[in-house]
Specification:
The protein has 248 residues and is α/β, with parallel strands linked by helices. The chain has one domain: 3-Layer(aba) Sandwich (Rossmann fold). A 7-stranded parallel sheet has the order 3-2-1-4-5-6-7, sandwiched between helices. Helix 1 links the parallel strand 1 and strand 2. Helix 4 packs parallel to helix 6. The radius of gyration is 17 Å and the shape is globular. Bound molecules: NADPH dihydro-nicotinamide-adenine-dinucleotide phosphate. The site of NADPH dihydro-nicotinamide-adenine-dinucleotide phosphate (NDP) has 31 residues, from helix 1, strand 2, helix 4 and helix 7.
């Protein structure tokens, strides 16, 4: 049985969807949880209540991860409040889908800034903390479209491919310090992000998946829990697909 008692996990975008499921799962294994969110306070409070049911400490931090200075302040505050960080989960993400033909510069910039630079900011500000501890887990949420591309998602797939390159680079930098850095590439998961698609598109995508169904946020949370655990201490620089065979 995986055990994260005594550890502190930071989950960006932990207020709903996959991030909330990750926060609840890690809490269920005993980790204290810092949830970083930027949108609805109500959603964040709901997630906090679910984590609290697991009997661990949980705090909410309002922070736009694409903001370098705000991320630094947030990491400092979390270290003060919890006494340290053991697990960083870069989950916050947005989409601004459309063909390049009609993609605005701001659609490209905002997706790269949140999905890729946001993950960089959080890694940058926890980096020396993990180095000093000679221990730590960094897990970033990529996507199958970062591996295979997808029409209408040039900005998003570039950000998710960037996560893969950054993960492998950071893994190489920190391997000698006992810090692992891995990514998870989810396929098509049931959350607000994919619920926004039309029923027809949902059916078409599900039909194209070898397992013929969408995944659940908990499927991603289970993989994060494993990579965060001591059992995964010899795994670094890995990109784990959790996709029902979608990108096989
Ligand atoms: P949701 O849209 O349901 O949730 C996104 C989360 O990210 C929210 O908690 C949101 O916070 C947070 N967030 C967005 N922007 C920022 C920001 N600037 N700073 C801090 N937090 C932010 O998405 P999912 O749960 O579906 O996706 C989670 C991750 O998984 C994303 O990185 C996504 O790209 C990735 N993914 C999802 C797939 C899917 O099929 N759903 C497939 C592959 C990858 P708030 O609620 O406060 O706005």
């Amino acid at each position: 049985m995986l055990n994260l008692k005594g550890k502190t996990a930071v989950v960006t975008g932990g207020s709903r969807g996959i991030g909330e499921a990750i926060a609840v799962k890690l809490a269920g294994l005993g980790a204290d949880i810092a949830i970083v969110y930027v949108g609805s306070e109500e959603e964040a409070q709901n997630a906090k209540a679910k984590v609290l049911e697991q009997g661990v400490k949980v705090e909410l931090y309002y922070c736009d991860v694409s903001d370098f200075a705000a991320s630094e302040e947030t990491v400092k505050k979390i270290i003060e409040d919890f006494g340290g960080i053991d697990i960083l989960v870069n989950n916050a993400g947005i989409v601004r889908d459309c063909l390049v033909l009609s993609m605005k510069e701001s659609d490209f910039d905002s997706v790269i800034n949140v999905n890729l630079k946001g993950a960089f900011n959080m890694i940058k500000h926890t980096y020396s903390h993990f180095m000093r501890k000679r221990k730590g887990r960094i897990i970033s949420i990529s996507s199958v479209v970062g591996l295979n591309g997808n029409a209408g998602q040039a900005n998003y797939s570039a950000s998710k491919a960037g996560i893969v390159g950054m993960t492998k680079s950071v893994a190489k930098e920190l391997a000698g310090r006992g810090v692992t850095c891995n990514a998870i590439a989810p396929g098509y998961i049931e959350t607000d992000m994919t619920n926004a698609l039309s029923d027809k598109v949902k059916e078409q995508v599900a039909a194209s998946i070898p397992m013929k169904k969408r995944g659940k946020p908990e499927d991603i949370a289970n993989a994060v829990a494993f990579l965060a655990s001591d059992e995964a201490s010899y795994i670094t620089g890995e990109v784990l697909r959790v996709d029902g065979g979608m990108a096989m």
